[in-house]
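Summary: Need help interpreting a holo structure output

Steps to reproduce:
1. Submit the protein chain below together with the SMILES for pyridoxal-5'-phosphate.
2. Request a joint structure prediction with the ligand placed.
3. Inspect the structure token block that comes back.

Expected: a single structure record containing both the chain and the bound molecule.
Actual: see attached output.

Input attached:
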Amino acid sequence: MTNNNADWQARSLASVWHPCTQMQRAAVVPPLPIARAKGPWLYDQEGHRYFDANSSWWVNLFGHADAGIASALKQQLDTLPHVMLAGCTHAPAIELAERLSARTGGVLGHAFYASDGASAVEIALKMSFHHWRNVGQGGKREFVCVRQGYHGETLGALAVTDVPVFRDAYDPLLMRSHLVASPDDRQAAAGEDAAAVAQRAAADLEALLAERHAHIAAVIVEPLVQCAAGMAMHHASYLQRVRALCDQHGVHLIADEIAVGCGRTGTFFACEQAGIWPDFMCLSKGITGGFLPLSLVLCRDAIYRAFLSDDVARGFLHSHSYTGNALACRAALAVLDRFDTDDVLGRNAGQAAVLDEALAPLMAHPGVEHPRRRGMIWAFDVKVELAQGRFAEAFHLAGRRHELLVRPIGRTVYLMPPYVLDADLSRWLSERLQATLHDTLQQPDADRAHQPATA
Ligand SMILES: *Cc1c(COP(=O)(O)O)cnc(C)c1O
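--- attached output ---
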């Protein structure tokens, strides 16, 4: 086996179709061949390290190869790696469902398991529609989603997603849904605060629900942060207003906490900051600490009970082969153990304050606008006149040269680091980000298309 990066990159490009990648462009931005990872660090085949500033697509919580999660998994591996969840059950699936329900004060429960975030969204959409049908309101079959929202890329999830790059090519295949204004607080007019933007956006939903509620099954939202939109943040009062409108008009509220759950925004669930509970909650990504794919949907008891019947067709029908995988559930239990015993949220608040201070010079850079943070998510936008051409790609490649794995979204640069920061790492991160920004802005647009093949 070779430990030459270029060899692995060539073999990967010849054999693997990478996600979220224009494969023609992958020759210019070859995938980093990662050989191993520990804590926040990824190491390539040649031993170079990279700080995983986006927690590997927002899934990692406590660093890579975390010893606590790994040892829980090793035990589970020798006991019960997997058994089908139709007709069988097992302790990890049961305990995880119980403990997550307890974290909602028992408001939500009956975890329905799947493996990926998009599948959880599919499940919530189907459950909502089927619930209404079971209670004699089969006409409620439309869904409402928020502008620039992201809920995954299977056909149902994509139909409630409003990110053109993921959606446009497949649009002819998608069911129609209603789009309402985003509460993104960057839209504040002069003298307007985030709460006012939130109320303005909620008024758009109010108008739609007043007219169409008899046809609408559910509204789906990303609580507090629309991550894929470019870490668009909003005031918690938006969620309170949406909850009230859904109650008033007899429409379900689906909270997609796939990215924002598991402490990412400062509370275990983002909804807690608004003091509301949805009718369905989708979880995935961080729930296994970034070890294994797992997703799940929690719902209210009244919804669950509407499916109970002698009639098979009134039961919820949606199955995946690996539903409730025992290893994945065990990893999730190890994650919950950490939250229970380690004051993760309290420590994160301390880590965030330290990184805030370290990032202050960067956030004050004249090329930067809308500096923002919610919990363990930091973001800023590079001014549009400076971020022409292939800005995100150029920033990413410059980041590699400074030992950073960063993937800006458009002109939004963000950090969603594992929960392992300290003062030294925060200072280092800030210096490297500043150097990366400096290099990217130095480089004329015309050169950006001619980046060297390896960084
Ligand atoms: C990532 C994400 C999804 C989709 O999850 P996958 O595991 O990638 O299918 C859905 N909703 C939100 C908010 C996400 O961030």
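--- end attachment ---

Reviewer comment: Residues 450-455 have pLDDT under 50 and may be disordered. Residues 392 and 410 are 6 Å apart (CA to CA).
Status: needs-info
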